[in-house]
């Protein structure tokens, strides 16, 4: 069983046909893809948060396929600021409800650097179709993204997956909240 | 949605739900992004499968099973299991000593996709697929409701 731990251990096992399987015993990073933006980054896995099959696996922080994990958001933030020129690490100010507030903290990221006209043109073109789901935005600002493991760590030795978006994200967020709510009310 | 009944998020694996450009080049009236396939062998994929919103990974039209091997027909015996039925196949066995036939039957469990509405007594065409559970190796491909065919239905027909 693959545990979340910082000393990475992967064993090579010879299987039928002379082929090899990589049994991951301890992992802490994975290659996670952000589907709607079509980028993939290697990130640290921070926390196992939900498992549809077994709560025990959440408690023991076991990495399995289709476990919901929290993943470091920094590489994705960096990519986003490079691609769109917008810095997501600052939280939106709730006071001013204008749209400018969103873009306001966005611009300072590159205001100091001088950018060529070519680069600026590319950025403005990309920014025209830019849409960012508010749930994702919150997660990116806080530094932790929810992701789902889609590889089988005990077979291929990797814990790769995809960032949760849209309906799936809402579904799992509700599940996690319900569990937290139950735990909190039980303890109280 | 009504169909998210399990603890994990039910979705069709080949459909990417969060694409930003979805819904642009879409013909009006077609809502969801849905995966469905033609199972071949001359079977039409039902409209319910294409337009429905159910998620069933064992459905031959919208899931991950392929139909290959035998195609059999039988009558529906029992529909009490979730998404599966038992199909009863009657046949005659010849006894050499007495030069006569005797009636025999065997039961099969088949998975039935939510796009079909099956009642006991309907005739059903099932196709072989990979093992879906301990006893289920077949999948319902077509339902012929009881009372549908007009001409000459005998009381007992050997299948």
Automatic annotation (TrEMBL), chain A:
Protein family per UniProt: Belongs to the eukaryotic ribosomal protein eS8 family.
Question: Matching Gene3D superfamilies, A to Z?
Answer: 3.10.290.70, Ribosomal protein S8e, subdomain
Q: What is the lineage of its organism?
A: Eukaryota, Viridiplantae, Streptophyta, Embryophyta, Tracheophyta
Q: Per its record, what are the GO molecular function terms?
A: structural constituent of ribosome
**Keywords in alphabetical order:** Ribonucleoprotein, Ribosomal protein
User: Per its UniProt entry, which superkingdom is the organism in?
Assistant: Eukaryota
User: What name does this protein carry?
Assistant: 40S ribosomal protein S8
Q: Which CDD domains match?
A: Ribosomal_S8e_like
Q: Which InterPro entries match?
A: Ribosomal_eS8 (IPR001047), Ribosomal_protein_eS8_euk (IPR042563), Ribosomal_Se8/biogenesis_NSA2 (IPR022309)
GO cellular component terms listed in the entry, alphabetical order: ribonucleoprotein complex; ribosome
Q: Can you cite a GO biological process for this protein?
A: translation
TrEMBL record, chain B:
Q: Name one GO cellular component term.
A: cytosolic small ribosomal subunit
> What InterPro entries does its record include?
NA-bd_OB-fold, Ribosomal_uS17, Ribosomal_uS17_arc/euk, Ribosomal_uS17_CS, Ribosomal_uS17_N
For the biological process aspect of GO, one term held by this record is: translation
Small ribosomal subunit protein uS17 N-terminal domain span = 4-72
Q: Which UniProt keywords apply?
A: Ribonucleoprotein, Ribosomal protein, RNA-binding, rRNA-binding
Q: What protein family is recorded?
A: Belongs to the universal ribosomal protein uS17 family.
Question: GO MF annotations for this entry?
Answer: mRNA binding; rRNA binding; structural constituent of ribosome
Question: Which SUPFAM superfamilies does the record cross-reference, listed alphabetically?
Answer: Nucleic acid-binding proteins (SSF50249)
Gene3D superfamilies per the UniProt record, alphabetical: 2.40.50.1000
Tell me what organism the protein belongs to. Ceratopteris richardii
The protein in question is named Small ribosomal subunit protein uS17 N-terminal domain-containing protein
